[in-house]
Amino acid sequence: DWVAQDESALKLVASLREDAKPLREQLPTISPSSASLTVGPEGDLSEVEYDVLATEGYRAMTLGPTVLRAETATFQGLAILSYELFR
Helix count (H) and strand count (E) of the chain? Predict the structure, then answer.
């Protein structure tokens, strides 16, 4: 339910999928006034969960080559967002 209620201009999901792109590659196409970042559990989200998020406009964003714990991935994702949006 919360996914459908997210009204952020930029919707991201931290992803281990091969098609996930770095945030810097996605920003030239948008200029967000607000952003949200979804981080799944350790072991990543299921394909069904990714499909639901994609249907709601979420973009898969890689956090780099290292697989992180869920709580670490949250801080890594926020650091990337902060750097790319406010530099």
Answer: 4, 3
Tell how far CA 45 is from the center of its chain. 12
3-state secondary structure of 46: coil
Phi, psi of 36 (to 5 degrees): -135, 150
Sign of CA dihedral 79, 69, 53, 6: negative
H/E element holding 11? strand 10-14
Beta bridge partner(s), residue 38: 13
- The segments of the chain whose pLDDT lies below 50 read none
44: left (phi over 0), alpha (psi -120 to 50) or beta: left
Assign residue 57 a region: left if phi > 0, alpha if psi is -120 to 50, beta otherwise?
A: left
Which pTM does this prediction carry? Answer: 0.86
pLDDT score recorded for residue 29: 66
